Amino acid sequence: MRRSRLPSLITFAVLVFLFAPLVVLVTNSFNASRFGGAWEGFTWGWYDKLWAADEVWESLAVTLKIAVSASLAAMILGTLAAYALHCFRSWLQNVHQMLITLPLVMPDILMGMALLALFVVTGVETGLLTIWIAHVTFCLSFVTMVVLGRLQDFDFTLIDAARDLGATRAQAVRKVLLPLLLPGVLAGGLLAFTLSIDDYVITFFVSGPGTTTLPLRVASMMKTSRSLPVINALSTLLIASTFVIAALSFRLQRRT
Description:
The protein has helices at residues 6-28, 45-52, 54-87, 91-105, 108-122, 128-152, 157-164, 169-198, 201-206, 214-221, 228-255. The protein is mostly helical.
């Protein structure tokens, strides 16, 4: 019986639809043309200009500082939240699960406005701290869902076996539970790190003077056409980094 080629054609069309813009962007980062309308030769010049753009690297430093710290906080809080949701059943945990799920479905613009209103009411000045709080807020939900999925397949009889062999509850958690959960926790942390670096809408509302993250910097650079080739070069580096992080996260999830 002859196989249909339709599934392969649909898959190919979807891949072209998803990755064709990225291919064009990466190609234009090596294009000598300033506007990218036509190919005018290969060049590394835009990467040289990117290397000399100090304001971009300053924004990148701010972004990485926030992303790393927010991801670590989200990994800790998300793991604790997932454990509580999995092991306890009560009306309070139902409310807890609703609050954890809410940032996943809430529009970014609404979440950004809500956080800004909260900071204004409480008198907190917008800046690095408010960005960090906002990023922990939405990254926490993603880490919780990843770790919760791991806990659903976890064999808790291993904890009982460790206790029977003389381990204390703290030792069983430290030497049995945490090592087995670690791949899921790291996968959630890498996902949170990627989301934090990429966030623009929420950060736009809660940022302050002197705390320009990389997405905000790129958005401001887009207003001038002379910066477009440099943005292409920067975006190419970010795409490569994202693929590496996504591959690591996928590999860690496969290990769970």
